[in-house]
């Protein structure tokens, strides 16, 4: 507490830290106060600090505060034995609660305490971080101003601070100090995120002038997300993914968990998904989580899955029954097979686009015209690594056609990539949803997720090898990058899901026109495999 000099760059001014953590008020060094004045000032400041502390504690920790209040009241009424009894009873209750229901105990007692402690930490350390980072401007009244925390939205694992920037400090200048901020606040990471949406009634929203509608970034403000703890540290069991009943929402397929504790869902309708990760990063878990969640739709016939597994079926072969067609590229004609597979799919995309033209802009999956999920386990092997240049050109052309034409008529490519290089990532912009798991170098992050993703907090190179399945997701049209972890299915789970959800017979008109030299399922009535 008190007044402290912050350095020669402040031209001999003195920063008064009692003035609070949001704005540094400046007092002239030469200004003198009487001793009585100082004492009063100190008392007022102390009283204010105590009130904020007590009220803040009671507001954020209602259960411990109520217990303390009860004990205090018993003591005040001269009932020390009753107070001792209450203390012992409360202690026994707390221990029993902790042992019997640790999750609930954490949610109701420990988490509120942590949140309160974080608020205290922001208050205590904010001004110091701003000053240390020289995020200080002097206005014409010679007041020194630092970015001010205008609002704190708190969650269990992360807080979002709305920070108002004084004139003269840019978002970019502020962003340079995120690491220092994270360290000072004891956070796992600090990131700038888009402005949280504000709820407004529809009638009001529709009447507001669109050109003044709030955008992703608000001028003069930054939204800083500080993450604490890690809800992704533990393996997420994937055996419940397919328990959605018969209905699968293709626009929100469950894959795992986000680092704010919410479910991670991926839209497969009207998009393609690029999935990159170094070897052992957990690409398989993302693919299987998607397939498991799609299980009920596969069985019902509203979705069909085809796949290309250049590893000879090592990855996708486990759940072969789920696939209408799986190319494993293990014979002498592997490259031909892969090219024919892609050309068949591109033709199907053309056919569907023709059918939908003038009738609908996007497909609503049905048994008559099902959604088609195309899993390509190693995208590079069908583009960069086909040795024959003519075949490579054909594969490139077919993949390009499939990616550009397939989205609207319900064909979604999920392409996995182990080694993101410039020549492979030429396809990146055709994948509106991009997922990057652990990568070898920081430079690969932007290649996969898009320019600026690393700067926006996607630190894929820093993901520990001990947490496979953890990664970052970027989606076209969404400014935020989300940290996620895919659920994990054991080999046994995959076999069970494949047996449970294997596709039924295909109705006339509903099958795929994939070139299928050796179908995995014998052709059934109505199957249009050419
Ligand atoms: N989401 C996950 N949660 C927990 N463990 C996982 C997860 N995903 C993968 N693993 C573990 O990591 C190992 C490697 O995962 P996986 O084979 O999916 O990686 P990959 O990226 O497909 O690697 P490669 O490209 O070499 O095939 C798995 O055997 C599994 O034990």
UniProtKB/TrEMBL annotation:
Residues covered by the FtsK domain: 250-446
Residue stretches spanning the membrane: 39-60, 66-99, 120-137
Stretches with biased composition (Basic and acidic residues): 515-524
Keywords: ATP-binding, Membrane, Nucleotide-binding, Transmembrane, Transmembrane helix
Residues at which ATP binds: 277-284
Molecular function per GO: ATP binding; DNA binding
Segments for region (Disordered): 508-530
Xref: PANTHER family: DNA TRANSLOCASE FTSK, SPORULATION PROTEIN RELATED
Protein name per Swiss-Prot or TrEMBL: DNA segregation ATPase FtsK/SpoIIIE, S-DNA-T family
């Amino acid at each position: 507490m008190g007044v402290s000099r912050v350095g020669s760059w402040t031209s001999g001014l003195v920063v008064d830290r009692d003035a609070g953590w949001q704005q540094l008020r400046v007092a002239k060094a030469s200004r003198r106060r009487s001793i009585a004045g100082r004492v009063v000032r100190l008392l007022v400041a102390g009283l204010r600090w105590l009130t904020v502390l007590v009220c803040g504690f009671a507001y954020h920790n209602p259960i411990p505060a109520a217990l303390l209040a009860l004990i205090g009241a018993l003591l005040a009424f001269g009932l020390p034995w009753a107070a001792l009894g209450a203390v012992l009873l409360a202690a026994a209750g707390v221990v029993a609660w902790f042992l019997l229901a640790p999750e609930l105990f954490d949610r109701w007692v420990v988490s509120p305490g942590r949140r309160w402690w974080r608020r205290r930490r922001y208050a205590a350390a904010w001004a110091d971080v701003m000053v240390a980072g020289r995020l200080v401007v002097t206005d014409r009244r010679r007041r020194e101003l630092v970015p001010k925390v205008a609002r704190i939205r708190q969650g269990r694992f992360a807080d979002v601070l709305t920070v108002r920037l004084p004139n003269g400090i840019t978002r970019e200048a502020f962003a340079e100090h995120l690491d220092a901020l994270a360290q000072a606040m004891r956070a796992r990471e600090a990131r700038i995120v888009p402005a949280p949406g504000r709820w407004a009634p529809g009638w009001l929203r529709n009447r507001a002038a669109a050109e003044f509608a709030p955008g992703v970034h608000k001028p003069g403000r930054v939204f800083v997300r500080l993450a604490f703890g890690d809800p992704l540290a533990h393996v997420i069991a994937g055996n419940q993914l397919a328990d959605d009943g018969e209905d699968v929402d293709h626009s929100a397929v469950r894959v795992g968990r986000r680092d704010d504790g919410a479910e991670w869902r991926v839209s497969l309708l009207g998009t393609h998904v690029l999935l990159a990760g170094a070897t052992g990063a957990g690409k398989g878990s993302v693919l299987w989580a998607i397939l498991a969640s799609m299980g009920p739709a596969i069985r019902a016939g509203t979705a069909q899955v085809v796949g290309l597994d250049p590893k000879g079926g090592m990855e996708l072969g486990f759940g072969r029954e789920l696939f209408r067609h799986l190319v494993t590229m293990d014979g002498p004609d592997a490259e031909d097979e892969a090219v024919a597979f892609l050309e068949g799919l591109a033709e199907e995309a053309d056919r569907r686009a023709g059918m939908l033209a003038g009738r609908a802009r996007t497909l609503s999956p049905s048994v008559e015209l099902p959604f088609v999920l195309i899993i390509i386990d190693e995208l590079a092997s069908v583009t960069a690594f086909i040795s024959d240049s003519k075949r490579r050109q054909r594969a490139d052309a077919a993949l390009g056609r499939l990616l550009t034409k397939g989205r609207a008529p319900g064909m979604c490519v999920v392409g996995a990539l182990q080694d993101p290089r410039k020549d492979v990532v030429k396809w990146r912009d055709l994948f509106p949803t991009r997922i990057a798991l652990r990568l070898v170098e920081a430079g690969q992050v932007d290649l996969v997720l898009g320019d600026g993703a690393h700067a926006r907090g996607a630190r894929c190179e820093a993901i520990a090898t001990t947490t496979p399945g953890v990664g970052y997701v970027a989606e076209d049209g969404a400014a935020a990058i989300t940290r996620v972890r895919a659920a994990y299915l054991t080999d046994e789970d995959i076999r069970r899901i494949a047996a449970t959800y294997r596709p039924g017979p295909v109705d006339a008109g509903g099958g795929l026109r994939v070139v299928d030299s050796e179908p995995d399922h014998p052709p059934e009535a109505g199957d249009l495999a050419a």
